[in-house]
Amino acid sequence: MDPHPILQAAAVMRVLVFTLALLSSVLVASEAKIIQRCHLAKELNDLGLSQYLGFTLGDWLCTVFHESGFNTDPPVSPTRRKAYGLFRINNSDWCSDGVQPSKNLCNISCSKLIDDDIKDDILCAKKIIKQNGHLKAWPRWAKRCRGKDLSVYVKSCNFEIPIQETKSYETW
């Protein structure tokens, strides 16, 4: 019996096993994390986003809900421009993915915006709103959140939330 077909079959099997192992590790590593609404509200509050430049926790939670559904999953886009993390921060201006040329104004790797640590996401979001002066950097905020009753986003969250003043965004 010719040993070459057996060697070839063994080589194919090794490649197949390696490919499956690699694929399964990539799938595990890229599992999205969905942050619970009240947990996110507490994190946003603790890291100073409540009333940051006059925007409420409701504004931020509504924005994140409509941008990402509280999901940190990696972006899927047919273009080179992608948006990362809970806030869907783009790779052309705010983070660097190592592929798309970027201003990287938050001085952060885009991959840091899809991990379990949301502190860097929040710091970048603060930089974005500080530079822009408003939440219009997130178009879904203007369409879905601005001027609406956003109390539902913090309702039933069991922690102390600072008094949230009403701010009129209708003049923007």
In brief, what are we looking at here?
With 172 residues, the protein is mostly helical. The chain has 2 domains: 1-31; 32-153, Lysozyme (Orthogonal Bundle), CATH 1.10.530. It has helices spanning 3-29, 37-46, 57-68, 119-132, 139-144; strands at 83-84, 89-90.
Question: What does this entry look like structurally?
Answer:
- With 172 residues, this protein is mostly helical.
- The protein has five helices and two strands; from the N terminus they run αααββαα.
- A hairpin with a 4-residue loop joins strand 1 and strand 2 (89-90).
- The longest helix has 27 residues, at 3-29.
- The termini are far apart.
- Belongs to the glycosyl hydrolase 22 family.
- Keywords: Disulfide bond, Signal.
- One of its GO terms (molecular function) is lysozyme activity.
